[in-house]
Amino acid sequence: MNIQHNSKLKISLNNLDTITQNTLKFFFKSKLCEKAELFINDDNANVLIIDLDRHYNKEIIPNLKKNNQYVIFLHNEMNTPISEENTYNVTKPVQVKYLKQQISFISQRINDTEKDDIVSGKENTKSITTTAKHVHSKPSSQPFGLINNKSDTQNFKNNHLDMALKKSTESSTLNQYKAHKHVGSNRDINPDNPEELKKIYHNPKKYLYHHLVQAVKLGKNNKTDILIKTLFGNLYFDYNSQNILHSFNKAKMRYFRSSPLFIETKIVKNSLSEKSKKEYTISQNAESLIWQSAINASKGRVPLGTSLTQTIEMTSWPNFSRLLIFRYVIQIAAAWSTHHMSLLDTASQLKIPQRYIFTLYNAMLAIESANINNVINNTTKLNSDKRKSVFSKILSHIFNH
């Protein structure tokens, strides 16, 4: 089973939990990995992705070399990875850069072998001693997280993600998603009506998330810590840990995330001693706090000046397993990763209320995983005789399990 030089690797997903499998499907369908594509037929795949923490056919391993196949094992950091020829390992939760790295290793190895075959004019019989490459997933600027567990729901900390991947029913929708909690209750607006248009815009500078974004950018650009001075007390971006430090209790922080009270906020470079840092009683991951604050500030709105008709450019997959999400998030992100769609077209094509699209865009913009692309929208309208929405075309496969 040989692939042609420079062709894409065929990837098979084997016995993964539902969340991991669906997320990987989105990843490969999004074309963010140029060297590989999903291939349904397991027998003909070049690379098998297997969860080492779940049951799998162990007879696969001794036959890898004979079948010219490779395995990428996903495993918890505490478990011992398999180090056999033609096997590679990635710790969970998976980061996109490390998964792509292993795929590149395999692609390069196959290409090198094929070059040797061409030069020698025969099958390469040279003995190759391979030590399985192993990478640990560490935080990156563009994280891609998967569930770190042995079953579909064991120790699953983000119930919204599990719900977002399932079809809702009329009787369960309210209890499962509690949509008003995250996206507000705004009705769809007519963009040609100036009065209605006003309702879907907010001024980011009035909200906490905007200043957190600016602080993190300044800290990363200068590789330094940042002090965020507000009228209600200080927050602190710790560059080394990539955490936001503060002393606000849950009730206060919940109020601050959603309130337009931060016009007079100041951001300054300021390195604190370890002793001073300990005076802050709470430490939160900066990206997670920015994401949630952007959702709470949005409530179905987008920043002032946002185009509703220009194309959304999705630059990376958010780490949905670590972030607060709500109904339709996965579907919307999948559409943006594979289609040129504006905010309004996303709502109409997926038949989803605008407030969901606006809220998700505000959060993804805040963590720099999406933005408005200044090009003419070229969304393909649906063929009426097929009676299938973009939603069903992109995502029908995730419910067939």
Describe this structure in words.
- By secondary structure, the chain is an alpha/beta fold.
- It is 34% helix and 15% strand.
- The chain contains 14 helices and 15 strands.
- Strands 2-1-3-4-5-6 form a six-stranded parallel sheet, with helices on one face. Strands 11-8-9-10-12 form a five-stranded antiparallel sheet. Strands 7-13 form a two-stranded parallel ribbon.
- The radius of gyration is 23 Å and the shape is globular.
User: Given the helix and strand composition, which structural class is it?
Assistant: alpha/beta
Name of the CATH first level of the largest domain:
Alpha Beta
- The Rg value, from CA coordinates, equals 23 Å
- Overall shape: it is globular
Instruction: Assess the beta-strand content as a share of residues.
Output: 15-25%
CATH architecture of the largest domain: 3-Layer(aba) Sandwich
| Helix and strand pattern | EHEEEEHEHHHHEHEEEHEHEHEEHHHEH
Low-pLDDT windows of residues: 1-5, 122-132, 136-161, 165-177, 375-401
- The pLDDT mean sits at 75
Sheet bearing the most strands, described? Answer: 6 strands, parallel
Q: What is the CA-CA span between the terminal residues?
A: 28 Å
Q: Helix share of residues?
A: 25-40%
The CATH topology label of the largest domain is Rossmann fold
